[in-house]
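Field reference: sequence -> structure
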Amino acid sequence: MKEQKWMSLLGLANRARKIISGEELALKEIRSGKAKLVLLSKDASINTAKKITDKCNSYKVPLKLVENRHLLGQAIGKEARVVVAIMDNGFAKKMITLLD
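Structure field:
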């Protein structure tokens, strides 16, 4: 049930155009300070996970892990996604409470 809530919220954020998906685009948004929260799938490659984690730590962006890339992609109505950055404070705060 909890899984469904965060996925629904992510779908809503996607329809509101408040998310960016994909590694390079997410890194760009983290650097620019626009990313408020980053979701990373647990099955991401070691290099991708390290790159995203290090960037989030250095730019003080919260990072949450989700089960797998298929759930992340399914939540936004696309194929498998490894990294999703949420650009809106409201969506980010609610997502953090749902994933804690």
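Note: The chain has a mean pLDDT of 91.
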